[in-house]
Amino acid sequence: MDLPLEALSIFKEEGISSVSRDFSLQLLYNRLHWAKSETAFKSNVETSKGKTTKANKKKNVQMAPLNRDLSSNCLPVDTRNLKYIVDPYNEGREAEASSPSRKIQKILEKCYDLFTVQWEGVIGNMCAPSQAEWEQLLTNCSAFLFYGMERFMSHVSLNWLVAMNITKCRLVILLDLVRSQKSYQRIANCDFHKSCQRIALERPTETAILLSLTGVGSVIATQWYTNLEENAERLETLFENLLSFGKTTGQTVHVLQKSRSHRKRDSIKMEADSHGSPGEKVEEQTVCTSSDPPASHPSFFNCVLYGLPNIILM
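^ Cilia and flagella associated protein 46, sequence as received from the core. Prediction below:
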């Protein structure tokens, strides 16, 4: 499960719009069983949004409803009930423009009138969330975003998480696995008091399994350590496709993987154009096209989807 399975050539064929992973037939059955029970919710989405719009008008709150045509095979998740925790200890502040705290604030301001007016969460440059706040946000949301440093599970108690029932949370987005000097000092001190088995449970695949066992429908997560700039790009692409374009979770992750490989290919072509003679340019471009290394580089497939690929934010 740690390999970039999405990079296989069979998944690059035309007609494939999304690829998702799962851990067992039992887990898949449970997710699909929830999906059947959610079909009744579809007819109530528009009614609920209509009531909320009227209430918001009375409160002078401007919010654009998401009037989307819901396909029969898609499962709706209420956009208004998204919760987030961003860089709890403010360990990415040195990156300035790419720091999680500043990045999420820009997105919240940019999309405020459309989507985020009712979102709730904690940003680390303001205060560190307590364990009670973690529990409150995770148990009372339809979607949850963690955007920060190091392993997600290094921020929460394992015993607390496995005892939770968070079936209301249908989508979890984990943009973690970034390291700074301050975050390394913190996690080194924490890991010193943990066993090897305990640390192993904090790895990305194990984290997705634990979240699935607590009832989460889909998990979008990074597989390996990355940097703040790449996670900032992922956040923009995810929100743009999930919110603005109305794509499903599977389509969004597929777009994210393809867009990163295309950007890398374009940058290589631009670099080839700026160096060497015309003959050398043609030769370099031919080599890049034939071997096509950017499209198969593992880093382009760092962000993967576990669970249902047909969840759509409404």
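The CA atoms of residues 77 and 313 lie 5 Å apart.
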